[in-house]
Amino acid sequence: MVEESKLSDVELNERYNEQRRKFYAAVADCECMSSATAGRQTNERRWWTSVIYARLCTTAISIIKVLPGPRLGSKDVGPLDGHWDFTAVAVLTRTLFENRLALYYLCLEEIDEDEWRSRLNLMQLHDFYSRKKVFDDMAPEDTPSLENDCRVLEDLTNKLRSRKYFQSLGPKQQREFLRGDRSSFLNHEEILSRMGVAEPR
49, 80, 169, 180: which could form a disulfide with 107 (CB 3.0–4.6 Å)? Predict the structure, then answer.
């Protein structure tokens, strides 16, 4: 049985609006930092950080746009401002959560260059297979050539196999990762544990 909230409707509404304002302020700060650092020349690892960080900001802005309530800073309430689309909010929030994990996993955790490149290559391999599944459903004239697919797949596979970190994994793990089903060597719980926000199992 679900416990009913002890807060009144007015109190719940006040709490919601307060948290919405805090979220908006945090996203605005993130967007300012993203804009201030745009266009700078940097190394590959920092470039990926900027890409994932920008994606995180974009997702957060989309969440703000679908949350119910008047535009922040406006006192005018429109007829649709109380509309809750829980599905859209849930999907975007899940995406935001995964963006945050990816930012830590690929960009912020202190690991050596070989392990970082292993992580990057696995992500690229997963992306290759994901895109291929989409293109395979399209008309043949719109799909990349089979020869090009084989060349890209061979290049990504060879890069991954050449990494010491990847070589340190067991043969069974290596085969599983080379299938391209996973974008990271660690699952969500393991990443959260390394971030210090979850207890390791």
Answer: 49
